[in-house]
Amino acid sequence: MKFRFILKILGALMMLMGLAMSSTLVYAFLNIEHPQVGLGMKALEWSSIGAFVLGVTFFFCFKLKKKHVLRKEAITIVGLGWIVCGIIGAFPYWLCPVEQPLSFAQSIFESFSGFTTTGSTVITDLSLWPKEILLWRSLTQWLGGVGILVLFVAVLSSLGVGSKSLFQHESSFEVTHSSTARIKDAAWLLLKIYLILTIICILGLLAMGLSPFDAVCHAFTTVSTGGFSPHNESIAYYDSWDNAWAIQLWITLFMLLCSFNFLIYTLLLKRKWKQFFFQEESFSLFVLLIVATVIISIGVYQMSHTQLGGDFLETLRRCLFMVVSIASTTGFGLENYEAWPIYTIIILIALMFIGGCSGATAGGIKMGRVLTALKACHFEITKTFRPNYIDRVNLNSRNLDTETVSHTLGFVMLFVFITFLSVFIVAILEMTNGIDVITAFGAVVATLPNIGPGLGDVGPTGNFAHFNESTLTFLSLLMVLGRLELYAILALIVPAMWKKF
To answer: What span, in angstroms and rounded, lies between the C-alpha atoms of 214 and 63?
Structure first.
C-alpha cells in the first residue's frame, strides 16, 4: 500500500472540493443585498480555503511515482475519498452562525446525507438557514449523484494515473474488459449526459415559474435522486400553485429518467437500437413502478379519510410522484405515506430496498441484482424436479457466469444482514431515548439504501434531529456503506487490506 500516493490523490480530491465549495460564494456575492444571503459566507469562505490549502499541501508534498492504481489502493481511495468529502462538506454547516446551529456530528450527518444523495436531514427549519448554505446543500447531492470519484476519474489523465480500478469500484458499470482510455471516455460521457439532464431540468422548472434559486436547487437534487429541497414542505411547497401538477410531473419524469441505467442513454446517442431494446433491467423497473402506482392509487383513493380529493387522476398523479420518489431513492416529500393503507406502505418498503438500476444515480440493492437473484431462485426450484435441467441465468440478453450470480446472491444476503444488524445497533444506541422498533427500522431503511425519509419518527413528516450524536455518526457511515455498495467500505476494516504483499 503506497500511502503517500493515496494521500496525493486525496489531496487532488480536496482541491476539487474546495473549488466546488467556493462556487457557491459566487451566488452569495451576486445576491449580497438579499436579507437571507451573507450569514453563511464566512463559513463557506473558511471551509473552501481550508479544503483547498489542505489539498494543495497533500498534492504537492508527495511525489507521484506510480502510473497505475492497484485494486486495493483504488478501494482505499474510493472509501476514504467519500469519507473525506463528507467531513470537509460538514464545515459550512458547523461554522454557520444560525439561530439553531448544528453540532459537528449533526453537520457530518447532513453532509454525508448530501454527498450520498440520501436526503435525510437534521435541520428542523430550513427557513433559518442562508441561501448560500442551502445551495451548497443541494450541490453536494449533485456532486454525489454522478459520483465524486467518477468526476475525479474524468480528470485523472492530467495526473497520468490509471483510472480503471477507481471507476469500477465507484460506479455500478461493468468495466472488466474495458481499457483505461475507454474508461475515461465513458466517465466523460456520463458527465455530459448528467449535465445535459440537469440543464434541461433547470430550464423546465424556470419555465414553470420557479425562481432561479429554487430551479437550480431542485434540479440538482432531482437529477441526483437526492431529495433535498430548500423548503420545509419539500415539493408540497408548490401545492397552492395553479401549475403544481406540471411541476410534479416534470420532477417525476427526471427522477424516473435518472433511476434508469445511464447506459441506455449512451446506447441512444450511439444509435445502438438492438442493445437498447434488450435493457431488461430498466424495462422491469418501469413496469414495476407502473403496477405499484396503480395498486397504491386504488388503495389511497378508496380511503374514506384521504386528503387527495375525489379525483382519481389527481390521486394517481400524486401517488405516481411518491412511488417514483421512493423507488428512485430521491425521497422528495409530497404526501404522508404513513397515513396510507398498510399494504401500500409495505409496497413502498419493498421499493425502498429494490431502489433503481445499476449504473444510475439511485441507491438500494438495484433492480439488476433483484432480477438476478429471482432468476437464480427460479433455476434452483426447477432443478428440484428436473435435476438434469441445464440453463443459464441471463440479464439484458447477456449470460451471467456462476461467479457473477454467486456474487449477486452474496450481496443481497449481506445487505439484508447489515440491515437487521444496524437496526439492533440503532436500538441500543437510542435505548435511553426510548425509540420504538418502527423508528429504528425506519432510520436504517432511510440511510443504508440512501432513501431519505423512513418510518415512524423519521418518516415523511419527521427528521433525525432527535437522535444522539453516536447514532448520527453510525447512520452517516451507513449512508456511505450503501452508496458504495458495501464492499469498498467493509474492505477498509479488514486488517489484511493494509498489509504489504
So the answer is: 43
When pLDDT is cut at 50, 70 and 90, the band that residue 64 belongs to is low
When the pLDDT of each residue in the chain is averaged and rounded to a whole number, the result is: 83
pTM assigned to the model: 0.89
Q: Which of 207, 222, 322 is nearest to 314 (CA)?
A: 322
The partner residues of 394 in beta bridges, in order of sequence, read: 399
What DSSP state is assigned to residue 206? H
- Burial (CB count <10 Å: 0-12, 13-18, 19+), residue 377: exposed
Q: Nearest Cα to 92, choosing from 48, 123, 33?
A: 48
Give me the half-sphere count of Cα atoms (radius 13 Å) on the Cβ side of residue 53. Answer: 6
pLDDT digits (tens, 9 = 90+) for 242-258: 999 999 999 999 999 99
328 within 8 A of 259, measured Cβ to Cβ:
yes
Q: How many CA atoms lie within 13 A of 191 on its CB side?
A: 17
Distance from the Cα of residue 239 to its chain's centroid: 26
Q: Which of 235, 232, 231, 266 is nearest to 249 (CA)?
A: 235
Mark residue 309 as left, alpha or beta (left: phi above 0; alpha: psi -120 to 50; beta: remaining). left
Q: For cell 429471482, what's the residue?
A: 374
Closest CA to 98 of 71, 74, 126: 126
pLDDT of residue 493: 82
Q: Which residues of 67-79 are buried (b: 16+ CB within 10 A; e: fewer)?
A: eebeebbbbbbbb
pLDDT bracket for residue 63 (50, 70, 90): low
- Do residues 146 and 139 lie in contact, with contact meaning Cβ atoms separated by under 8 Å? no
- pLDDT band at residue 417 under the 50/70/90 scheme: very high
Summarize the confidence of residues 358-386 as an average pLDDT: 84
